[in-house]
Amino acid sequence: MTKKFNEKAWHEYDLGFMVSRPGCSAEYRTGDWRSQQPQTNKDKCIKCGVCYLVCPEGAIVLAADGTYDFDLEHCKGCGICATECWTGCISMVEEGE
Amino acid sequence: MAKRVGIEVSLAISEAVKLAKVDAVAAYPITPQTHIVEHLSELVAEGELDAAFIPVESEHSAMSVCAGTSAAGARTYTATSSQGLALMNEILFIIPALRLPVVMTIANRALSGPISIWNDHSDIMSVRDTGWIAIFAENGQEAFDLTLQSFKIAEDHRVLLPISVNIDGFTLSHVIEPHEFLDQSEVDKFLPEYKPAVQLNPDDPVSMGTVGVPEIYAEAKKCQDEVLKGSIEVIKEVFAEFAEMFGREYKVVETYRAEGAETLLMTMGSVSETAMEAIDRMQEAGRKVGLIRLRLWRPFPADDLRAEMGSVKTLAVLDRAVSFGGAGGPVAGEVRSALYNVEDSPYIASFIAGLGGRDITVDDFIEMVDQAEAMAKANEIHEYKMIGVRE
């Protein structure tokens, strides 16, 4: 099994600590930085996709029914989606509530 | 047979860079480095050197361009001095961290203020901890030879670190000396084409210079230090290969008439040749005095230095820079650290002289030896003494 990025010895990294696999930042779980998480009232969602476009982390994913779900392993809880949502169907809820 | 040419040392360095067939030069002119890059720009303009000469608006940009061209896989060269080196400072740290084998000549010059265009070592000492290999040349031939060798050392896949070749401003950069030039075919045999280990390439993308979160930053720094320290073996290999091919031998620590010496004078750079004269005179007078010269400043050759300390009782170390508020000159500080835990280590006297272009004479060196021996005999504790300063 390959070691995680934070388990390697100093001599086991790529030259110059460069990133040699495109897209590997997805493996870094930034979701635990969050203090609030987005929740959607899907009855009010008009499937416009504004939240999907404005999310700075690409943490909003298209669901099978045309609405949108959240990738909570990478969502940092910034709340831009909730602010920009046209119908106000996204609200930010404290973590743990 | 190599031809012997009388030429200004700056131009000889440019010719060495041309013989190394660099792909990219990005530099900003500054006294006393100017003639080096001026001549390189002529060589490129006249079609004698097939390289990109990239004029920039500052040294910060010069070193930034060097990072880019080196990352793209180009053999990259630049040169600077003093304030120019200071302006490069931010990027100097990044080049070795990204493992980019840039070669730079530093025509050593004092830092402002007061404004000084003259020679001392305060510029290179201010970038001691940036992670570059730092080599000193004592004359034009050495500057020529070490420039060529630097590309081979830097680009070795066990190293992949940048190198500064330090030459004393004016004292070397602006004097005409005889140089034995090498033919292109000889240089090509010694220095093959640069093969980057990794390079920026859209068909095989990598990201260089990414964030180092707390979980990996310490590993990154440890790696950098281990590679820099390990480079000394490659430096010795390249010196040996050069000696075998061209007959001129270089060592990381060099000595002059040091056999059986009880007092050693330690120097770095072009003043070593004046120091040799001082040693000759003192030996004629029957004194057991020799000279030790540091060719390699980073990585610091501590083992090689310790190996030369056999019968030495007193070591007089010359610095050409002040470590303000510190315990002596920067070189003396390193030497004291390297020898502190060694049994029967010599008494170490730190002297600062030759600041901002002040001459260091043969008599100054004799005075350093006199003072060091007297201080050692009395076991006096001094941080450092400045030679030739009006009190």
Number of helices of chain A: 2
CATH fold type of the largest domain in chain B: Rossmann fold
Mean pLDDT reading of chain B: 97
Q: Which CATH C-level class of the domain at 31-92 in chain A is it?
A: Alpha Beta
Oligomer type: heterodimer
Total of helices of chain B = 12
> Separation of termini of chain A?
36 Å
Shape of chain B: globular
Describe this structure in words.
The complex is a heterodimer of chains A (97) and B (391). In chain A, strand 2 (60-62) and strand 3 form a beta hairpin. Chain A has a domain at 31-92: Alpha-Beta Plaits. With 97 residues, chain A is an alpha+beta fold. In chain A, the strands form two sheets. In chain A, strands 1-4 form a two-stranded antiparallel ribbon. Chain A has two helices and four strands. The model of chain A has no long low-confidence stretch (mean pLDDT 92). By secondary structure, chain B is an alpha/beta fold. Chain B folds into two domains: 4-246, Rossmann fold (3-Layer(aba) Sandwich), CATH 3.40.50.970; 253-386, Rossmann fold, CATH 3.40.50. Helices cover 41% and strands 18% of the residues of chain B. Chain B is built from twelve helices and 15 strands. Chain B has helices at residues 9-19, 34-45, 59-71, 82-97, 122-126, 140-155, 184-190, 214-246, 272-284, 302-307, 330-339, 362-378; strands at 4-8, 24-27, 52-55, 76-80, 103-108, 133-136, 163-168, 176-180, 253-256, 263-267, 289-294, 296-298, 314-319, 347-352, 385-386. In chain B, the strands form three sheets. Chain B has a seven-stranded mixed β-sheet, with helices on both faces. In chain B, strand 14 (347-352), helix 12 and strand 15 form a beta-alpha-beta unit. The longest helix of chain B is centred in the middle third of the chain and has 33 residues, at 214-246. Chain B is globular and about 70 Å long. The mean pLDDT of chain B is 97.
